[in-house]
From TrEMBL:
Protein name: Serine/threonine-protein phosphatase
Composition bias type Basic residues, residue spans: 327-338
Biased composition, class Basic and acidic residues, residue ranges: 344-368
Gene3D superfamilies on file: PPM-type phosphatase domain (3.60.40.10)
Pfam family name, one: PP2C_2
Native species: Methylosinus sporium
Length: 368
């Protein structure tokens, strides 16, 4: 069921972009889908599986195109809400939407700095909502021109280096008792939403890697050798995604199964990176395009109401008083920023357009 903005933590209500992404990721969707993203070299796929009543996975991609002095960035994120804890689906939604928001907000920093800031903001946002009683795993790729790609991982979602005819290599270690400290069991020592003490694993992608696969445990619970053989022999990423999703079901479909496959070589082409100023977000079910109607530096910030699929974001009357307070706050924050302190929060006026994926699987249009 789609969340209203009143259900989101109050810390999120001030930012139109984060709200828009969170609402969009929470919409009613079919039980499974695959999106071969238009003009973006990635396959995003998710499947509720055969034994779960709700899909608590979220997989999405973001492309921020350059505007003025902003740095372009491409990010692909996969999050798995933690079963048995509070509101796993909502925690995964907040993890992805707040991660994307922080990447946009810190767009003038380097990739590793943005990865750390985005993971910290996601952790804080989910913790503010669930108070440590809920959370999500998170794995992400960050890509920018002129710098080695960066990956970040927290929990037991995974990232693999792969490709047709290429030996598969896992690039991440699970934050589980078994893998992190050599104990027994799959209990997680770290996750998004755990609160203070979180230490994400951030590293650059090894040179020579041409493709990456981001997976939740509904995919990689498959026998490791079998998973590697599928990735090794698949003729192209779409086939690999389809085969792994089907295999997860054939093996019982005990959990939500999500995968993102990214062609790093294609990401480096100008045709993929160079687009008009704005933001695009993909998930397995469709695409959302967000256009800057006003750059944050051109006027005082506005707070915006929730988006619909047919209308751009608009400021509502109840927010006018808070807008005036925000303008005063932004002037004070600007003064602090000039003194070397944190930059002010940047809310912008946005226009949103939504397209549906053409590769949604047939089935009941149930909520996740």
């Amino acid at each position: 069921m789609t969340q209203s903005m009143s259900e989101m933590p109050s810390a999120n209500r001030g930012d139109a972009f984060q709200e828009a992404v969170a609402t969009w990721l929470s919409r009613r969707v079919p039980e499974r889908a695959q999106n071969q993203c238009f003009d973006f070299p990635a396959i995003l796929s998710t499947d509720i599986g055969l034994q779960r009543e709700e899909n608590q996975d979220r997989v999405a991609a973001l492309r921020l195109s350059a505007r003025h002095s902003s740095q372009p960035i491409i990010a692909v994120v996969i999050a798995d809400g933690m079963g048995g804890m509070r509101d796993g689906a909502k925690c995964a939604t907040l993890a992805v939407s707040s991660f994307f928001y922080a990447l946009v907000r810190h767009r003038h920093q380097g990739l590793e700095q943005r990865a750390a800031a985005a993971t910290a903001h996601a952790n804080d946002t989910v913790f503010a909502f669930a108070n440590g009683r809920g959370g999500a795993t998170l794995s992400a790729l960050l890509f920018d021109e002129g710098a080695p790609p960066v990956i970040v991982n927290l929990g037991d979602s995974r990232i693999y280096a792969c490709g047709k005819g290429i030996k598969v290599e896992r690039l991440t270690i699970d934050d589980s008792l078994e893998e992190a400290v050599g104990g027994h069991g799959r209990e997680l020592l770290q996750f998004v939403g755990m609160g203070p003490g979180m230490q994400p694993h951030i590293r650059t992608v090894p040179s020579g890697v041409t493709e990456l696969a981001l997976t939740t445990d509904g995919i990689h619970y498959i026998d490791a050798d079998t998973l590697a053989k599928v990735l090794f022999h698949a003729p192209e990423p779409k086939a690999a995604s389809e085969r792994l999703s089907a295999l997860a079901r054939w093996c019982g479909g005990h959990d939500n199964a999500s995968i993102a496959l990214i062609d790093l070589k294609a990401l480096r082409t100008p045709a993929v990176r160079n687009h008009d100023a704005g933001i695009q977000v993909w998930d397995p079910f469709g695409t959302m395009a967000i256009t800057w109607l006003r750059d944050p530096g051109e006027a005082p910030p506005l707070q915006a109401a929730a988006p619909s699929e047919t209308a751009p974001l608009q400021a509502n009357p109840e927010q006018r008083g808070s807008d005036r307070r925000d303008r005063k706050g932004s002037r004070r924050s600007a003064k602090k920023a000039r003194q070397g302190q944190s930059p002010p929060k940047e809310d912008v006026q946005l226009e949103i357009k939504i397209e549906k994926s053409s590769d949604v699987k047939d089935g009941d249009d149930d909520s996740r």
